[in-house]
Amino acid sequence: MKTGFWFHSLADPQPPNYTFVRCCTTGIFHPGSTKGTVSLYFYLPQDFDPKRRRYPVVVNFHGGGFTIGSATDDGRWASIVLKNTAAIFVSVEYRLAPEYAFPVAVEDGCDAVLHLAANCEEYGIDPRRIALSGFSAGANLAFTVPLMLNCWRNRTDSKDCPALSSYKIISIISLYPILDYRGDRASKRAACERPDKAIPSILTNLFDAAYMPDPSNISSPFASPAAAPSNMLIQALPGESIGLYCCQWDMLHAEGLAFAERLKSLGKKVEYETIPEAVHGFDKLPNPVTVDPKADQIYRKACVVLQQALGIETIEGF
Hints:
By secondary structure, the protein is an alpha/beta fold. It has helices spanning about 1-10, 75-85, 105-120, 120-125, 135-155, 165, 185-190, 200-210, 230-235, 255-265, 295-310, and strands at about 20-25, 35-45, 55-60, 90-95, 125-135, 170-175, 240-245, 270-275. It is globular, with a radius of gyration of 18 Å. The relative contact order is 0.15.
């Protein structure tokens, strides 16, 4: 996978390097989360000046079936976000399965958000303008992290954790997420439009066995947001800004479309799009010559959603 991303990074324009890395200590904001450390990769906008103003932040979660991948995998997305929103972009190096199975990745995402809120002055962040983004497994986290954070908030005295009352997630961008572990992969693969284009079963079986070794967890809303009760979705997810983008030839396409329709029925404003003739991870394919124009287009559409949520005028334009 690292070799594939190396080839992917060669095409012009090349993705930017991160500006700096900070370590986030986990297990301090909520007593039930798994203790450890998580690295946060910061990409800063060109005009960054924390003495002049506070910046919105896009907190990103990479893909890789919760078992592989790195916080630097989404450099091209970071570049588009920086150019079109002038927000700080922070990519989370959450801990991976099988060493850290469910729900550690979700907990790490929660701790990352709370760390940024608790240290907002140091980082120049406006904790009331937080957006989440993610791809594949990370796109799952873009939904499950706010669900778990809301649960923590409801169960924790704000005096014990001021960060829980200070953050606000105002937008979610989720690309080709896994949203429902209750359905078996074989059925999803058989039902999708192009089963021959789906992720091979040898990989999905390894991913699922590593991340979800206890089958009793598959119905948890922190694993399967599609299983969350409606009142939880209404309370935890932003009402005015959700961008959900699924791939036509992906086995996860149907559950993504169904989830988008359900969120709309609950009164959420959802920008949904099926990316035509696209496979899962289409935007990360190892092409060293050119960037997939569909990827560039969908990234820019997602940035329009972010611009509207963050109250930012178009910078580069779409």
